[in-house]
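[User] I wish I could look at a protein chain and see how it folds. I have put the entry right below:
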Amino acid sequence: MSTTTPVEVGLVGAGPWARAMHARMLAAGPETRLAAVWARRPDAAREVAAPYGAAVAGTPEELFDRCEAVAFAVPPAVQAELAVRAAKAGKALLLEKPLGPDLAAARAVADAVAAAGVVSQMVLTKRYHPATREFLRRAAGFETTGARSCYLHGAFLGGEFATGWRLQEGALLDLGPHLLDLLDTAIGPIVSIRGTGDPRRWVELTCEHAGGAVSQASLSGCVPLTGARTQVELFGPAGTLLYDTSGIDHEQGWPVLRAEFAAAVRAGRSGELDAARGLRLQELIEAARPS
């Protein structure tokens, strides 16, 4: 779905995910245009902005003045602070997961979005891929008794993403939103959750869902796999239903994400993957923290 006039989007952040995903996606259009970039390091912001002819903002407020919507590709604590300011400035928000570094910060973002009445959308990238949507469509008609799932990779062992908050908080805060969103959507609302293990090494979650189904989720960013492994397998009276991302091109979901965000901004209405959804996932993460 396209819009008549591209949505002018400002990007907060100039790290690896901003370069590899956000800037490329937003600049590709035609539904959006990368209008400006702000980062705490001006030289990094210039490197991200230059290939797309985007402006470099000197402050977050200058970025807000140059755009209709703000996309975030920064650590959760930075996003939570600046998203509240952007919402108060009347800007639509394209938000990364997790919504904040903790539940209080996530709630502050969701509250600011609600108070300002601005459009918000979570970058839960898997949810925009056709394979994911087909799985969720089939899961809606599948009677689930139990489920097993995992999200595993080795990115925390070294490389661009083995830094900062990911190493400190581990897989529960980084990978948990993706897997919990899929389980909560495919099987039914999670009504209780408990976690065991060390989120910085391996954490195991057990979820009870409305309707009685039970699911388990394994999360780790510290296993030396050749590629990320994301699987959800549902079991029920009719047999099994499997979701496996190993054979998909994740970039196929980017145009869908971009188009749906632009359409929401033009319509002035958020979709189901809004800041309130991000808060719901943060509540589950908080409840799942091993004691």
Remarks:
- The chain has a mean pLDDT of 96.
- The chain has eleven helices and twelve strands.
- The chain has two domains: 7-125+252-272, 130-247.
- The two ends are 45 Å apart (CA to CA).
